Amino acid sequence: QVRIVESGGGFVQPGGSLTLSCVVSGTAIDIYAMGWYRQAAGSQRELLATISSGGSPYYEDSVWGRSTISRDNAKNTVNLLLNSLKPEDSGTYYCNYAPSDSPPWDAWGQGTQVTVSS
Q1: pLDDT per residue over 19-62, tens digit each?
Q2: Cβ atoms of residues 97 and 34 within 8 Å
Q3: Angle at Cα 74 formed by Cα 50 and Cα 79, nearest 5°?
Q4: Number of other CB atoms surrounding residue 30 within 10 Å
Q5: What are the E-state strand segments in the chain?
Q6: Which of 2, 35, 50, 69 has the CA that lies 20 to 30 A from 56?
Q7: How far apart are CA 48 and CA 68, in angstroms?
């Protein structure tokens, strides 16, 4: 059974930075592209960034230029560094497989809450 645990969220002032982490258990993630998602209050979950199995990153416009996604396959972890945070970055952040026509598992973590406010 796949289990995903996200951490690293918190309260931060605009312009600040956070590093979000997730650890996946129950499967090795090395062959999968992974991603970070955000769900703001009252909104659908949106993709922010992905990283291929080989380590190639992709960023959506919403975080392009101010985020870095990384992975450590040995530790089964995926991180997301967010810089220059804005109030609109507030929400619950989730880590999971990147969008796929063949989802490798059916599980989401609880997410980690990020609040950006002065």
Answers
A1: 999 999 999 999 999 999 999 999 999 999 999 999 999 999 99
A2: yes
A3: 35
A4: 13
A5: 3-7, 10-12, 18-25, 34-39, 46-51, 57-59, 67-72, 77-82, 91-97, 112-116
A6: 2
A7: 11
